[in-house]
Amino acid sequence: MAAQSATDELERTGSAGAVTARPRRGAGASLARFAQQTWRPVAVLAALVVIWWAVTAANLIKPYLVPSPGKTFDVILAQTGYFAHNTWITSYETILGFVIAIAVGVLSAVVMVYSPTVEKSLYPLLLFAQVIPKIAIAPLFVVWLGFGLSPKIVVAVLMAFFPIVISTVTGLKSIDPEMLQLSATMGAGAGKTFWKIRFPASLPHLFAGLKVAATMAVTGAVVGEFVGANEGLGYVILQANGNLDTPMLFAGLLIMSLLGVVLFVVVELLEYFVLPWHASRRTDAATTSL
Amino acid sequence: MTSMMAGNTSTQRSSTATATGAAVEIDDVAVRFRTKKKDVTALTDVSLRIEPGEFVSIVGASGCGKSTLLKLVSGLLRPSSGQVRLHGEDVRGPRRDIGYVFQRAALLEWRSARRNILLQAEMRGMPRAQARERADELMAMTGLTGFEDAYPNELSGGMQQRVALCRALLHRPPVLLMDEPFGALDALTREQMNVELRRIWQETGTTVMLVTHSIAEAVYLANRVVVMTPRPGTIAELIDVDLPVERDYGKTMSEPEFARGTGRIRDLLGAASASD
Ligand SMILES: Nc1ncnc2c1ncn2[C@@H]1O[C@H](COP(=O)(O)OP(=O)(O)OP(=O)(O)O)[C@@H](O)[C@H]1O
Ligand SMILES: [Mg+2]
């Protein structure tokens, strides 16, 4: 038995020695690294909840101003169906808005990078669309599109679109000119050069933009709901505010933030799997996001 | 060995030579760059003829137009005046019948060593199995066996350069252009790469143009050395290197012909920098 486990051990260390020249890039290793990077922020979050709890338990703040974590969670547990439905609505608007923003954003960026004329004409327009406060034009979308989900999705798209375009343009432009020259000596056309060199090289930038855009999409959806809705987390918060129901308000806020964090983490996880080469380098640089 | 080499070179010659016979012809070429602030004459009065299977080194001070010369031959750059011909054909745009090794390895960091080499095949639409076999053969030849699946950030600088070299050789280009490929390497690795490159050149019969800052490297590797002087960039002298085909790093360097070659280059470059 002991001998058996000893040989097991030997085999394991043997194979581990063999892979040192070529580190394993399996899903397990990536997940382990991800966990290693995330435990700290999770710990900080837990500490914040403890402080929140301590402050309210010691009665430092009036309960109608800041409810205790217990009371907030009670509200969520008491009305799970209600929260589940409204969370689903906001998630739906957010994700759809995010995905549309990615499609439209990446496409416009590609067109802009390949056509200076389009870039010159589109860029000012883009900037103009970005500086208009979305909350100011959101009512207009309600007038145009009604009380359904579409105006919220439109606001989410508008919020998420800008960082995606900017990051993709930056990524596509930051290509080493020598890489493009190399491609030319290989006789590659524009299509092959784009798919095999330029686009993959731009992905680290694109993902940076996607992370910002993910949180913007949540904000966009909620802003849309503020302006005119009868469901969604924005609606829940607005209602709770009107009723001075702070536990309900906090519950809504909590879930909303959670939604943003989850979307962010999903994008980050995606980055780990799509860009293992880049993520591994970043680990060396010891920069932890989240 | 020598006779086999000669045979190899002659087949190379017959397969690539056209009406004029030369692999590379540069005819009274000038290159001017127009920037916002001023016009720069990078090259002027440059004429050069390189026979198939030759190994030509190019040396000269920084900014004298060595990279520009390679870009001209590859068609990545058009001359302001004069003509460039490759195998008798006018160079009008980027040429795909060359292999180019850049100063930096220019590898795709998301591709393993092997897949970086195979990029050449994918871009050219070469048959996959055949390309893979050739890639493995080249990696064995350059001592990359065991690192086929390693990513560029897991390779040393010398290994990265070797991957770039394999990539440039994958499609058996009749002309190989190398722009300071070993500049970033330590002395020992550089020596090893020189010996390898010389052997690969003998085995493939490729015409090579190599830009380098090392006078010893230039002479050790080449049949001819092009010495360039800056402002404006022009060819100061063509130096024939009368060393035997079979070269040995230590022995070759102690030969009088080697000393003569390096000494002459040093004089030319020194004179150029003294007149600055
Ligand atoms: N795209 C460009 N635009 C403007 N000037 C350029 C351009 N490329 C090169 N030059 C100029 O042309 C001259 C020759 O450049 P080149 O890169 O060929 O030099 P080099 O001999 O390769 O130098 P180094 O040894 O430093 O690589 C330099 O003076 C440089 O400033
Ligand atoms: Mg140069």
UniProtKB/TrEMBL annotation, chain A:
This protein's GO CC annotations: plasma membrane
Keyword Coiled coil attached? no
Chief location bin: membrane
Alphabetical UniProt keywords = Cell membrane, Membrane, Transmembrane, Transmembrane helix, Transport
Question: What is the annotated localization of this protein?
Answer: Cell membrane
Gene3D superfamilies xref list: MetI-like (1.10.3720.10)
Q: Does the keyword Transmembrane helix apply?
A: yes
Q: Which CDD domains does the entry link to?
A: TM_PBP2 (cd06261)
Q: Offer one example of a GO biological process linked to this entry.
A: transmembrane transport
Transmembrane segments annotated in the record for this chain: 42-61, 95-114, 126-147, 153-172, 206-229, 249-274
Which family, according to the similarity comment? Belongs to the binding-protein-dependent transport system permease family.
What is the protein's name according to its record? Answer: ABC transporter permease
Organism of origin: Planosporangium mesophilum
The upper taxonomy is: Bacteria, Bacillati, Actinomycetota, Actinomycetes, Micromonosporales
